[in-house]
Specification:
Number of strands: 6
Largest sheet: 6 strands, antiparallel
Strand order of the largest sheet: 1-5-6-4-3-2
Radius of gyration: 16 Å
Number of helices: 6
Structural class: alpha+beta
Distance between the termini: 39 Å
Order of helices and strands: EEHHHEEHHHEE
Shape: globular
């Protein structure tokens, strides 16, 4: 059995109460069967969360309309990854978000079979330790040549183009299931 808990990147344990907190629980099999639910869920939560940002913000702060666009892309990537990569007996997907003064934090949890953890950890290490610009073009070439799934291009685009900081946590929850928590941190000050 793999270690019971591993964290990588910009992982932050969130207290139960930290500003507005939202949650939704889904079933990964429903996301796969009804693919449109990924974009519907992401668009809803992007719009809902963006409304916490004032319409008028000082220079250097992320505008509501820009935040909504970034969040729609980010959340769609996270929901689609849960749909594509969930496995094992537990098909529960849990979405959570926190709104702070300086950042928005999103966490999505799904479950994978234990054998899928090592390749995902390897990909995460590559994403977090490598140069995003260089890795992006490398992954584009690899995808064109090998037609690989789970390349990390979505994460790289979010890191490279939008400054999203990711954290990952793996928790062994049984002999056939590992919970994968992915956190995405979006800073509300532009250029940070």
């Amino acid at each position: 059995m793999i270690n019971t808990e591993q964290t990588f990147g910009n992982w932050q344990d969130m207290p139960a109460i930290t500003g507005p907190h939202n949650q939704m629980v889904l079933d990964a099999t429903h996301l796969v069967a009804h693919w449109r639910r990924c974009s519907l869920s992401s668009d809803f939560w992007a719009r809902y969360t963006a409304l916490f940002i004032p319409e008028s913000v000082p220079a250097g702060r992320l505008r509501r309309s820009d935040a909504e666009s970034v969040l729609a892309y980010l959340l769609n990537e996270l929901f689609e990854n849960c749909a594509k990569f969930s496995g094992g007996p537990n098909q529960r997907v849990c979405y959570q978000s926190w709104v702070g003064k300086e950042e928005l934090i999103f966490q999505i949890t799904n479950h994978i079979i234990p054998n899928n953890q090592p390749p995902f950890v390897k990909l995460i290490a590559e994403l977090l330790e490598g140069d995003p610009e260089e890795l992006y073009f490398q992954k584009l070439e690899e995808n064109a040549e090998l037609d690989t799934a789970g390349s990390g291009l979505g994460y790289l685009t979010l890191i490279k183009d939008y400054g999203i900081r990711f954290g990952f946590r793996f928790r062994q929850v049984g002999p056939e299931s590992v919970a994968v928590d992915v956190q995405a941190h979006l800073t509300l000050s532009e250029g940070e």
